[in-house]
Give the backbone structure.
Amino acid sequence: MTIPKYINVEGKISDIIQQNPYLLLMFEHFGIFMPFLEKNLKDVCEEEGLNKDLLILFINLFNDENFKYNIQLTSLDANTIISYLKNSHAYYIKEKYPKIQLAIKKMYKTNNNQEIKLVEKFFNDYFDEVKEHFVYENKVVFPYINQLLKNEGKEIITQHKYSVAQYKEHHDDIEEKLLDLKKLLIKYLPNQISQQLRRELILTLFDLEYDLHIHSKIENMILIPLVENMEQNISQ
């Protein structure tokens, strides 16, 4: 798969996805769905009311995680980013993680090995941490940012003594345990476990790891600096 590092507004969505299929999920999180026909990025941005610079930034970040951007985002973009992240959360909770849980159960059904029970427990504990992380964002962080956007920032900051700096501290890296789970499956699960089921599960975990890595980049590199700038402007 050849991935172009830089995309412009004239690029056709169908071509972009052919070059990097992971972007199909990214478009879904933005509320942009198939069929794409002959539409380019400019077309869908006009249809959906999206900032084309923000959409191109996300695409380039998926194509190159070290992509450096120099566009100026505004507080209006924060709403779009929050909507994107909420859609990502829903996808993980309702689709991706249940798929992984089902794959582990299938492995145990074909070979009720104790090691698979340990894999299941490890994953469920990890999933609980992920859900806690998402609940914190959905119930604390995103409502706080929405209040900033409604010009209630000074009041919320002074009354509740909250800032996005606390989000930084709470923002644990949920990728590390996923890496440990992959190592467990690749290195230590007994040979008699179905190779097909194990391979399917590992590839699913790699897909999840890729998406979660970009998800964290979006939060750390784009959303948090944008909100910090909003806080500074309100405090002045």
